[in-house]
Amino acid sequence: MTISPVRRRLIEQRRSARHRRALAYWCVLLAWLMSLWIGTSVVPPEWLHAPALFGHLAAVIVGLGSAVLLEMSGLLWTLRRAHLEDVRRVERTVTGLAWLGIAGLLATGAFLQPDLGQPLTAVKMIAVLVAAMNGVGMTRLTDELERLPGRVRFSALPRELRAWCLWSAAVSQIAWWTAVLIGMLNTASR
What is the 3-state secondary structure (H, E, C) of 18-36? Predict the structure, then answer.
């Protein structure tokens, strides 16, 4: 049995997307480990603390703001106040900003000397990793949603796909808000 050219192209696109996701997962993990290693091994000069903290706060604003905007547009879709095509438009707009926020957190956080001996700090670092890994995983979800008509209702999706959408959004928000709240507590206690 021969595979049609269209089917072959689809299979190749999915295989290529899997490889890109695998590479992205490894890149996120390595960047996170590098940030932790620098944060625990390098003592930055005192003058670098204020710019690093400012950059860190800016990264939180950009990353969390992007995540909230995307999940809010998804919520509007679930409530029939928006269409899937609206969610797609927001996703294309904010994805780069969300990754800029993650990269900014890892880059600036390395120079804020995180105390990994503190359980809350360790939880915060894991929350950042979870947010980033979830972002990589969401690329598969967006690929699945891209195959659907732009006016499809959320309630018309298969149960598994609806659960996947809700799960990804919940993980994103929990991870981001956990990191923000713990960061705020750590900064306030210094």
Answer: HHHHHHHHHHHHHHHHHHH
